[in-house]
Design a protein that fits this description.
Strand content: 5-15%
Helix content: 40-55%
Number of helices: 11
Distance between the termini: 27 Å
Length: 250
C-alpha cells in the first residue's frame, strides 16, 4: 500500500475519532425487516472487500483493477432509497470510537473499511448489519429463513454437500444449485450471472443465496439490476446453518 494512501486512511480515521456518524445503522433484526418490507437484495461489506478495493490481495481472492472498480461502484452508486440492494456494513466497528477499537484490538482490521465508507458512500444513507448471518447475531435460523422460505431458490456455493443439506431441509422448495469456486471466484462472475439469468426461474418468486467472497458482491449487483433479489450469505452455511459457533463468535 502506498504511503500516501496510508496517510489518507489515518487522516480519515482521525476525523472520525468518535465514530463514523454519517449513516443510519440498522441492527440484525431491523436488517431482516428492511429486506422483507422493501424487497431488496443484500450486499454485506467486510474487511476483505475493503482490501480488494484498495488493490490488496486477500487469501482467497486476488484483486485487480477490474475487481477494485466493481467494488467501488457498489459504494459510490449506493442509495438506500434508490438502489436495488441494501448495503450492510460492519456497523459495530464503523460507529465505535478509535479508543474502543484499540481496546478491542480491532483498529487495524477495520481502519480500511472506515476509510472507504467515508470516502465513497453518500452521506445520510442507511446501512444494514453485515454480521446478520454470522454467529455474532442472536437471530435464529427461523427468522433468517423468512427471506427465502416461500420462494424458489438458487443456491450459489462452493460445496455440493451444503446444497444437498439445504435441499433436504427445504424439500418443499424448488432449489437450483450453481457451484462457484472457493478461491478467486471473481473470474466466474459472468458465467455465474448467465446461469442465473438462464435458470428459467421467475424473478419475482426467486431468491438467490450466494456465498462467494468479494465476487458475490459484484454478482449480486449485476443480478439485482436485472430485477432479481439476492442475498450475500457469506459464512452462514459454514456456521449458523448448522447451528455451529466459532471461537470468536463472528
Amino acid at each position: 500500500m502506498r504511503n500516501s494512501l496510508k496517510l489518507k486512511i489515518i487522516i480519515f480515521n482521525l476525523l472520525s475519532f468518535y465514530g463514523v456518524k454519517n449513516f443510519s445503522y440498522l441492527n440484525d433484526s431491523e436488517t431482516i425487516e428492511y429486506l422483507l418490507k422493501n424487497k431488496k437484495s443484500l450486499i454485506r461489506w467486510g474487511d476483505g472487500e475493503s482490501s480488494c478495493l484498495l488493490l490488496k490481495d486477500i487469501y482467497f481472492q486476488k484483486t485487480s483493477t477490474e475487481l477494485s472498480s466493481d467494488l467501488k461502484s457498489i459504494l459510490v452508486e449506493y442509495s438506500a432509497e434508490n438502489s436495488k440492494y441494501l448495503l450492510a456494513g460492519p456497523n459495530k466497528y464503523l460507529s465505535a470510537d478509535i479508543l474502543t477499537l484499540l481496546y478491542e484490538n480491532k483498529l487495524l482490521t477495520w481502519i480500511k473499511s472506515r476509510y472507504v465508507f467515508m470516502k465513497y458512500i453518500k452521506r445520510s444513507n442507511v446501512l444494514g448489519d453485515a454480521f446478520v448471518f454470522r454467529p455474532l447475531s442472536q437471530l435464529s435460523n427461523e427468522i433468517v429463513e423468512k427471506l427465502w422460505i416461500n420462494h424458489n431458490i438458487i443456491l450459489v456455493h462452493p460445496e455440493v454437500r451444503v446444497f444437498e443439506d439445504f435441499k433436504r431441509k427445504y424439500s418443499s422448495n424448488k432449489v437450483m444449485f450453481i457451484q462457484i469456486k472457493s478461491e478467486n471466484a471473481y473470474s466466474e462472475i459472468n458465467d455465474i450471472s448467465k446461469n442465473i439469468f438462464n435458470s428459467g426461474f421467475s424473478k419475482s418468486n426467486t431468491r438467490i443465496l450466494i456465498s462467494g467472497g468479494p465476487a458475490a458482491k459484484v454478482i449480486i449487483k449485476l443480478v439485482s439490476d436485472k430485477g432479481y433479489i439476492a442475498y450475500d450469505m457469506g459464512q452462514y452455511f459454514k456456521w449458523k446453518f448448522y447451528n455451529k459457533f466459532n471461537e470468536k463468535g463472528i
